[in-house]
Amino acid sequence: MSKKLEIEKLNIEIERLKKELKKRKKYGLVWEEKPEEVVEMCTNPKRKKLPVLKEVKNKEIITDKDKPVNLLIEGDNYHALSVLNYTHAKKVDVIYIDPPYNTGNKDFIFNDRYVDREDAYRHSKWLSFMEKRLKLAKSLLKDTGVIFVSIDDNEVAQLKLLMDRQPDLFGERNLVGILKWKRKKQPSFLHNQIAGIAEYILVYARNINFAPKLSLEKIKGDTKPLFNPSNKEALRIFHKGIRVTYKEGIIKKGKYKIRTMIIEYLDDVVIKDFRTQNDFQMRAKFRDGQNNIDKYITKDLIFITKNNTLRREISEEESETLKPITDLLLDWGQNQDAFGELRNIFGGKIVFENPKPTLLIKNLIKSYTKNKSEVILDFMAGTGTTGHAVLELNKEDGGQRRFILCTNNRDENGTHKICTDVCYPRIKKVIKGYKNLKGQKVEGLGGNLKYFKTDFVDYDEPTDRNKIKLTEQTIEMLCVKEGTFEEVLPARRSLGAGGDQKSFKIFKNTDHYTGIIFDQVAIPAFKKTIKDIKGKFSVYVFSLGDETFDDEFKDVKQKVQLSPIPEAILRVYRRIFK
For residue 373, which of 35, 1, 178, 94 has the smallest C-alpha distance? Predict the structure, then answer.
């Protein structure tokens, strides 16, 4: 082959590759995916383990059975989120997380090792970690839900691109905004370039079309001016009957100076008994067009003041209008406040270095809150600030909000295990009360808490034996899903045992029941038991396939909602762990 022909073939191949690359070009992030042990244990087909929940009974806190039950889950948040994808899919209103900032200063652990600044894959590991958890978290949000993610300069750019562009995450169009939170009063002047005092909070909606306005207050003020100095001058017509703040007189036609603006009456205006007696025209820089002016006149909202200017009262509709929060959060609590809160709760002990202040989380939740019964999730709960904030809000406004906190129990600096030594004790003290640094008793806020740990079921293949094993270990998951924790009727035997005894369990809350049937032979006995119980039932029936036994329940179909187990759970896990 001649050299010329070789060059021609090479050029043809180069052009082909260029076209292929052009097709693949996408705007977004590219990183080297790093395997994560907590994920591998759920996805490796040879030694697969499926996460479940196990309640720690001696950590239960109940102060009022009529109030909602909050959840604290101890375990890796990947496993906790996997379970919640079954129990709380599209049930969460607000997510707040304070993830590791990946500063390289022992704040981010990947595969049980701290990731330091010199790690060549530092950003790839962090992005791999965040992408998996944000994907699971999105599935939990309602269509109207929002997520708040705290972050600083180290990863804010990468985080935004990840959430904007990564498939199955939130997407650029669902960005609500980026908040700047003033985290300290005074900067450290040891910085070489810029002394930082702020962090960021990225806010995304699951669906921007349904996202509520984030607001803490309604529009203030009883009146508004009709004029705007920045607008163009325009002519407006006013009909007689406009209210006036003085009883009698005449406004002579002509020009009048209102601060830096000139308004001009083109007609004399006769006033008697606090009302104008004739139609008149005005020239000025009006805020509104003639159609709106006519509406205000019809609703009797416009009045003339003593200095001959016009204002209007705020309408009833406007008085209910919410004022959006700004993207600069100046008085929403600071790091020093958060540090002091923890020391006060723990009798002066330093149990964590960089917690978030309760006020910050309260305001974020409150800015979303519309009916005060929302579900709030923090799957990087740390010291439990989010739970504390929810309890305070409920105490302040009588709300029925519920929180779900997820955190591991890693030993922080060899001193405190974050879940059992910090998060749980803090929530317990806040619920029941404690003595502050001055020895004064701080009254408890009340509330209920259930404490769970993630556990695992070996499930290397979908055999009948493994399905039975998984079913036996999912009772707590089903109770969490339905919010029914009070046992009404215990099972008389476990699944798979011999004999002709009937096997099922029943749990309840104030107005709902959950039935778990471990053997289809027990269906008649179960139906007989619930016959005289008033209320709706969610019924889970063990099935080796996907059968729900609708025919067996057709005589009580108005009373029960049927689901097969473990198939309903396995469907979720197949999607997650594919």
Answer: 94
User: Which burial class, exposed, middle or buried, applies to 252 when counting CB atoms under 10 A from its CB (0-12, 13-18, 19+)?
Assistant: exposed
* N residues, the chain: 578
pLDDT bin (cut points 50, 70, 90) of residue 500 is very low
Note the pLDDT tens digit of each residue in 187-225: 766 666 788 899 999 999 999 999 888 998 777 667 888
CA distance 483 to 372: 18
Query: What residue segments make up the domains of the chain, in order of their start?
Result: 38-212+324-452, 223-319, 464-576
Backbone angles phi and psi of 25, in degrees to 5: -65, 130
Residue type, 368: Y
In degrees, rounded to 5, the angle at the alpha carbon of residue 248 between the alpha carbons of residues 247 and 249 is 140
Q: 528: Cβ–Cβ under 8 A, 6 or more apart, which residues?
A: none
Domain 38-212+324-452 has CATH 3.40.50.150: yes
426-480 pLDDT, tens per residue?
Answer: 999 999 999 998 889 999 999 999 999 999 999 988 899 999 999 999 999 999 9
Q: Which of 385, 399, 369 is nearest to 430 (CA)?
A: 385
Please tell me the pTM assigned to this model.
0.82
Give the largest Cα separation in the chain, rounded: 108
Whether 305 has a pLDDT exceeding 50, the answer reads: yes
Residue 223 CA to residue 165 CA, distance in Å, equals 44
Question: Of 163, 132, 165, 142, which is closest to residue 576 (Cα–Cα)?
Answer: 132
Q: How far apart are CA 83 and CA 481, in angstroms?
A: 10
